[in-house]
Amino acid sequence: MRELSDTSRDASEFQIALLQAKTISERLALTLMLSQTTSALSKRAIRRANPDISEYELRCRFVEMHYGKVLADNFRQYLKEHPV
C-alpha cells in the first residue's frame, strides 16, 4: 500500500479501513462536503487577494483557476447570454 506523504503507514491503513467501512451514501456525502469546503476555501483565497472583486468576476476567476482559461471564457460568454 502506498503511504501518504504526511501520514504513517498505520494511520493511512486505519483511515482507508474507516472509509471502506462506510456505505456508498456516506462516502458520497463526505465527498460532497469536502468538495464544497475546498471550493469555499478557494473562493475565499481569491476574495482575500482581490478584496474589491465582484461576485461575477470571483466566479469567473474560480473557473479559470480550476478548469482553465478556455472554459472560463466560455463561462463568461454563457453568463452574458444568460444573466441571473
Describe this structure in words.
- With 84 residues, the protein is an all-alpha fold.
- The protein contains four helices and no strands.
- The chain has helices spanning 9-21, 24-49, 55-67, 69-81.
- α2 packs across α3 and α3 (55-67) runs antiparallel to α4 (69-81).
- The protein is elongated and about 50 Å long.
- The termini are far apart.
- The model has no long low-confidence stretch (mean pLDDT 92).
Q: How is the main sheet built? A: none
Amount of beta strand: under 5%
Which regions are unreliable across 5 or more consecutive residues at pLDDT < 50?
A: none
Question: What's the order of the H and E elements?
Answer: HHHH
- Number of helix segments? 4
Question: Any descriptors?
Answer:
single chain, 0% strand, 84 residues, mainly alpha, 4 helices, elongated, 77% helix
